[in-house]
Amino acid sequence: MLSLLLLHKIVYQLVSITGKFTARQYFPELCESNQDPRAQLHFADGIAWVRNAAPASYDVIIVDSTDPVGPAEGLFAAPFLQDCRRALGDTGLLVQQSESPLFHLENILKPLQRNLYQAGFTAVHTLHFPQCVYPSGWWTVTLATKTGDPTRFREQDAAAKPFATEYYNVDIHRASLATPEFMRRALAE
């Protein structure tokens, strides 16, 4: 993921909640960008990191966590999400990995959306996408903002992206914002 983030030519701080970065050992090709000076890697408790972050110090927080059990359980809870909201600037965006819409709608997605609203986010939207290596082959991320609509994006910037992609384009982005009927019904409850 870091190599894709760095295509955007800005500075990133990445925090591993496990205190170690095992991908370096098992997936070295995923770590080729780790030495980029724009990427600051921190191996610390991610929950504490966000709790201790200065208010409005981040534009985007991406939580690409494991399932919400063990050390990652707190990453789906209202206190952590409140800290994320506080750490984001006024136009900031939280992007939270939110599991499979087929297997985890009732026990993860719906509680996560409730927790995001409880944490003070004013707009929440779940995107779905194919992910063949995960259970069900269908995965989600949930977007949350303090102000504004997380489904609005800069279409002109997306159309004029300065790098090639194999899958992503403006139409795919627009289509990913559509919500299937079963998810609309369940998330509206």
Task: Give the SSE layout.
Layout: H1 2-5, E1 12-16, H2 23-26, E2 39-43, H3 46-51, E3 58-63, H4 78-87, E4 88-97, H5 105-118, E5 123-130, E6 138-145, H6 155-159, H7 170-176, H8 181-188
Parallel strand pairs: 1-2, 3-4
Antiparallel strand pairs: 4-6, 5-6
Description:
This protein has 189 residues and is α/β, with parallel strands linked by helices. It has 2 domains: 1-44, no CATH class; 56-188, Rossmann fold. The chain contains 8 helices and 6 strands. The chain has helices at 2-5, 23-26, 46-51, 78-87, 105-118, 155-159, 170-176, 181-188; strands at 12-16, 39-43, 58-63, 88-97, 123-130, 138-145. The protein has a 4-stranded mixed β-sheet with strand order 3-4-6-5. The protein has a two-stranded parallel sheet with strand order 1-2. Strand 5 and strand 6 (138-145) form a beta hairpin. The protein is globular and about 45 Å long.
* Tally of alpha and pi helices: 8
H-E order: HEHEHEHEHEEHHH
Q: Provide the CATH superfamily of the largest domain.
A: Vaccinia Virus protein VP39
Choose one word for the global shape: globular
CATH class identity of the largest domain: Alpha Beta
- In terms of structural class, how would the helical and strand content be classed? alpha/beta
Q: Supply the CATH architecture of the largest domain.
A: 3-Layer(aba) Sandwich
Rg for CA atoms: 17 Å
Overall mean confidence score, pLDDT: 86
User: What would the CATH topology of the largest domain be?
Assistant: Rossmann fold
β-sheet strand percentage? 15-25%
Count up the domains.
2
| Main sheet attributes: strand count, strand direction, barrel closure | 4 strands, mixed
